[in-house]
Amino acid sequence: METRPKKLLDRLRDAIRLKHYSYRTEETYVHWIRR
Questions:
Q1: Residue 17 contacts residue 26 (beta carbons within 8 Å)
Q2: Distance, CA of 19 to CA of 32 (rounded, Å)
Q3: HSE on the CB side for 4, CA within 13 Å?
Q4: What gap in Å lies between CA 18 and CA 35, rounded to an integer?
Q5: What's the CA gap between 6 and 17, in Å, rounded?
Q6: Helices and strands, number each (H, E), in the chain
Q7: pLDDT tens for each residue of 7-26
Q8: Which residues contact 8 (CB under 8 A, 6 or more apart)?
């Protein structure tokens, strides 16, 4: 079975978590990108 590449927002969340940003910051960044 082939693994699908992660979606942009999933990759963004991974990157934010690696930097130990707060959950609220993560949500704000995701909201900005969705707009």
A1: yes
A2: 18
A3: 4
A4: 24
A5: 15
A6: 2, 0
A7: 999 999 999 999 999 999 99
A8: 33
